[in-house]
Design goal:
mainly alpha; disordered N terminus; TPR-like_helical_dom_sf; TPR_rpt
Length: about 675
């Protein structure tokens, strides 16, 4: 077989797979986020003014997106940390949201302060008995990270049972045999909330929440019950904490299904919260497309109730825009981010932290689309707002982004100066050994590598690795920052042809990522890159095994149509050729051809490369007619695109000439359709 069939340089698969296939509504879970029980008019017949109370209530509890290091959800540009609506939802539930006071039980149950402040006098009499103790009426709003009733949580000691222990719950259930199942459900849910608030075992909290759900189910009426809905939300959130996402999704879907938008604004808001929580859960699984569909459904509900220019709608616009960025859908992300900026401008909140977050995200979007000058403008505006609010760490993070844009524009001196500013601030505010400091070292190493100053490049790589490798990654709690940093340093070493060091760092990044469901596509990308390095080093069997593992993970994550998946199939086919597994190579090349034709088109260089590899494999198997048919098409396309003087064209023309000579045929003058050439 000619060397050009297998020895040609192929593009390496990215460690960050794209998500470009477009899901239709039918691909989302069977329960649509906008479904209702009614068959009549489904328009939201609600007054904006009448719904404001509940909207405020929701945003003070569900929508308050505070940072949570334990959340496996995606990055948010509002707080520049790991965030999730599910975290906020769970903290909201832990603080006693939607809990009703039982008049006869004399049990203290806190109500949500925003709701209490807005309820009318008559509603207060109906919802809360005079005997109910409300500590939050005289004190500040309880923090979601703390218990709403600190006095009721026993302090740690050898003589006291922990809150939510089986003995306590079973005794309560035994004493409450004659009580309404709803009361039992409320009590169990309260116990689960206290376990979460006290930082207890999430498995114990889940057991209590499931018992509460069963109690609510035993007394369900035809009319939707919001208390039951919030119980479902909490059970699902606890499943997510335990990374049991497949268990959580049906519960959130059910919570969306039982809420009826025609029952009033509270049900509408519960449906909104369910849509956002379902979107978060899909995002944790890596199903970004389904996640976006859920977010959009929630956004439409909120937009109808609040109107088009409410500041809180801007927050959701940015949140959904971030999801589009993850899916590499930059046009949609830009549109939503612009909406958020316009909303803040109309509300007179220029130079606010919210607008700064919008501007920073818009800068990232423009940067990703190649509009570097526009990106710098947005970054600069965001930096000014952060500086005015004395958020020094955020100013440094934005400086690093500005440096990236300067680097893309080849304005190296300005990039170095900006990186150094960010580095000095991070050192002062976060310490010498923080991952943020390491990330700037990596940027400087990349810059010096690009301008050929390799000694400085290696020095900065060593500084970064000293920080990244100081703490061993924990598989149970993967550190994405460390893993991403190791991948970036590995890429720099690979570009300097230090393949052993690059391979070692990629393997360490795999350990840092862990094996959670939400990491499948990322881990698959890393394994594919390891396969490429093994192939370059001549370890073809190792390369084959890594590619095989990566492809299995891509399939499990639903990545069956992306360009990265097609390129990985092509790379595995090349490994199969090297180990002389030609039949498997043909299957892989044919599947890669199908994927890349759909993703890139038949004329793309990556697609033509797969055609060439497939022709070479046909040649090795003795299927010369098939090889000639494909090569004639490839040579014709390369001549049209690259010209007859191209080295690639010349090599393939010589190869085609040899095959034609052996078969006693002449090259066809006219070109045939691709469907005909590749048929069979």
């Amino acid at each position: 077989m000619p060397k050009s069939a297998t020895d040609k340089q192929k593009p390496a698969p990215s460690s960050e797979p794209t998500h470009k296939e477009h899901f239709t509504e039918t691909l989302i879970s069977p329960t649509s986020p906008l479904s209702t029980h009614t068959t009549g008019n489904e328009s939201f017949d609600l007054s904006i003014s009448s719904s404001r109370n509940s909207i405020d209530q929701l945003y003070n509890n569900v929508y308050e997106m505070e940072s949570s290091d334990q959340s496996p959800s995606r990055f948010s540009y509002f707080s520049y940390g790991q965030e999730s609506r599910i975290d906020s939802e769970l903290r909201y539930l832990a603080s006693g949201g939607f809990a009703k006071a039982d008049t006869d039980s004399k049990i203290t149950v806190d109500e949500k302060e925003p709701a209490e402040a807005r309820l009318s006098g008559e509603e207060k009499k109906d919802e809360v008995s005079k005997d109910t103790t409300r500590k939050n009426k005289k004190t500040r709003k309880p923090s979601p990270a703390r218990s709403p009733s600190p006095g009721k949580i026993p302090k740690a000691g050898p003589k006291k049972k922990p809150v939510g222990s089986k003995l306590t719950v079973k005794k309560s259930e035994k004493n409450s045999n004659n009580e309404d199942p709803r009361y039992v459900g409320q009590y169990l849910l309260k116990q689960a909330r206290e376990v979460v608030s006290a930082g207890g075992d999430p498995k114990k909290a889940l057991d209590l929440a499931i018992r509460a759900k069963n109690s609510f189910e035993s007394c369900q009426s035809e009319k939707p019950d919001l208390e039951f809905v919030m119980c479902l939300h909490m059970v699902a959130a606890l499943y997510c904490i335990l990374r049991q996402y497949d268990e959580a999704i049906p519960l959130v879907e059910r919570s969306i299904e039982v809420t009826n938008i025609n029952e009033g604004q509270k049900h509408l808001l519960a449906k909104f919260a369910g849509c956002m929580q379902l979107g978060d859960t899909y995002a944790m699984q890596g199903n970004i497309e389904k996640s976006i569909l859920c977010y959009k459904a929630g956004l439409e509900i909120q937009k109808h109730v609040l109107g088009e220019y409410d500041a809180r709608l801007g927050e959701t616009c940015r949140y959904v825009a971030e999801a589009h960025v993850q899916a590499m859908q930059f046009d949609e992300a830009k549109k939503l981010c612009k909406m958020a900026i316009d909303i803040h401008r109309k509300n007179g909140t220029n130079n606010s932290l919210e607008e700064a977050a919008d501007r920073r995200l818009m800068g990232l979007i423009c940067d990703s689309m190649g509009n570097y000058d526009t990106a710098i403008e947005h970054y600069t505006l965001a930096r000014m707002a952060m500086s005015a609010n004395e958020h020094d760490s955020d100013v440094a993070a934005i400086d690093a982004c500005i440096g990236d844009a300067y680097l893309s524009l080849a304005r190296y001196d300005e990039a170095i100066f900006t990186y150094q500013k960010a580095l000095n601030v991070f050192r002062f505010t976060k310490g010498e050994n923080h991952s943020s400091v390491a990330s700037v070292y990596v940027r400087l190493a990349d810059l010096y590598n690009k301008i050929g100053r390799f000694r400085e490049c290696e020095t900065y790589c060593e500084h970064a690795l000293r920080i990244y490798l100081k703490v061993k990654p924990n598989p149970q709690s993967p550190n994405d920052e460390i893993a991403n940093g190791l991948i970036e340093v590995s890429a720099i070493y690979e570009s300097m042809n230090q393949l052993d060091q690059a391979l070692d760092l990629l393997k360490k990044s795999l350990k840092a990522y862990g094996t959670g469901p939400g990491q499948l596509t990322t881990v698959a990308g890393v394994e594919a890159q390891i396969g490429v390095l093994c192939y370059m080093m001549g370890s073809y069997f190792d390369s084959y095994e890594y590619f095989k593992s990566a492809i299995l993970k891509f399939r499990a994550a639903g990545e069956k149509k992306s360009g990265v998946f097609g390129i990985t199939l092509n790379q595995m086919g090349l490994a199969c050729v090297q180990i002389e597994s030609f039949d498997e190579a043909v299957d892989l090349f044919e599947e890669a051809r199908s994927v890349l034709e759909t993703e890139y088109g038949p004329h793309h260089p990556n697609t033509l490369g797969v055609y060439s590899n497939l022709a070479g494999t046909y040649d090795a198997l003795g299927r010369w007619d098939d090889a000639i048919e494909i090569l004639e098409y490839v040579v014709g396309m390369r001549e049209d695109k690259l010209g007859t003087a191209s080295a690639d064209v010349d090599n393939e023309k010589q190869w085609l000439a040899e095959l034609l000579k052996e078969s006693g045929r002449d090259r066809r003058k006219g070109s045939r359709s691709l469907e005909f050439l590749l048929d069979g």
